[in-house]
Write a structure and sequence with these properties.
The structure holds 2 protein chains of 2 kinds. Chain A is mainly alpha-helical. Chain A folds into 2 domains: 66 residues; 32 residues, no CATH class. Chain A is built from 4 helices and no strands. In chain A, helix 2 packs across helix 3 and helix 3 packs antiparallel against helix 4. The radius of gyration of chain A is 20 Å and the shape is flat. The relative contact order of chain A is 0.08. Chain B is α/β, with parallel strands linked by helices. Chain B has a single domain, classed as 2-Layer Sandwich (Major capsid protein gp5 fold), CATH 3.30.2400. In chain B, the strands form 3 sheets. In chain B, strands 1, 4, 9, 10 and 11 form a 5-stranded mixed beta sheet that branches. Chain B has a 5-stranded mixed beta sheet with strand order 5-12-8-6-7. In chain B, strands 2-3 form a two-stranded antiparallel sheet. In chain B, strand 10 and strand 11 form a beta hairpin. Chain B is flat, with a radius of gyration of 22 Å. Classes of the chains: A mainly alpha, B alpha/beta. Chains A and B meet through loops of A and helix 1 and strand 1 of B.
Chain lengths: 130, 267
Amino acid sequence: MPTEQYHEPPDELPAETRTLARILTSLIEECEAINWYEQRLAVEPDAEAKAIMRNAQQEEVKHFSMDLEFLLRRTPLWREIAQGILFQGGDIVAHGEAAEESAVEGAADRGEPLAGSESLGIGGVRAVAS
Amino acid sequence: MSHLLREHAPITAAGWDRIDQEARERLTPALAARKLIDFAGPHGWQHSAMNLGRTQRVTKPPAEGLTAVQRLVLPLAELRAPFAVSRAELADADRGAEDIDFAALDAAARALAVGENTSVFHGWKGAGMTGIAQASTHRAIALGEDCERYPLHVAKAVEALLSAGIDGPYGIALGPVAYTRVLETSEHGGYPLLEHLREIAGGPLVWSPGVDGAVVVSLRGGDFLFDSGEDISIGYLAHDADAVQLYLEESFSFRVVTPEAAVPLSP
């Protein structure tokens, strides 16, 4: 069984991490395919061949987008950061800095564990008023 | 690897899951303060102090013609509760045993929760923390043993808070002795005392190991600030052929911003 997508012994990884690793690897493969088609299209003189490759590249973009959406659904903090950056005009870098700060601070305010933390993740457990 | 050194422990991933889960189950009901105050963080193990936004004058500036002040902060304190887990029990857990003996972990979890609750409600002088009951500007109301009078005491506390301009809803941290009394009591007509007290306060009654008597606090927010550095974690100390030495640990600080937002009920 190929295990190149793992950097730690797979049997020590939780099932959720293995699923994320598979989708992350798929995302990388889709990016590579998009890149290959982009370069082939740039040099291919035959219009019919170009049309086929453009169609294939669009398929890869669809797969890339589906992989990305899956990853963002499973990891709320990544989603919060991405929401501050994707599909809006303006300065991309400024949006990135603001989105990261807002998402990380928001997570801290909610008492969520820091990324990479080995804590028990209890945080704030404020009771709801009856 | 973090300072917890968990990777050095002779414990399987499944064993760590069981230990962490047991600790969570024991801690969550007992961490009463977190159910009633504002929790900020966790900010990580390297977070060392809480910003107070205040300064003190430095009497001798480093050169002529200067004035100087120094920032005041409240340093975080670290609480640690060591415990041991039998390696034979961990091996049985890996075999699928459900009834693992985690008595020492349970005791450590309770000790840590009591420590956190005590620091928040009654203070921890050595670490510079003033508790909610200590800081309160209201005169303490004597709770006593007569449960039938508890609604009266809580109503008085709520009235004192309203008179001071402190909005509700209000929550009640009840020490274990008072909590048991309340649970066991039905008023005339069989109406549970617990429900009656909840209605008066407009918020929850919280079982609070470490609290002496009870404390009525406003839940409007912004009055009581708990600053978490590293949230409660389990680390590794040492092991031999029979047992693994572990510990529960957290770093935090606490301060009262609005002393009039709580009323202590003495036992």
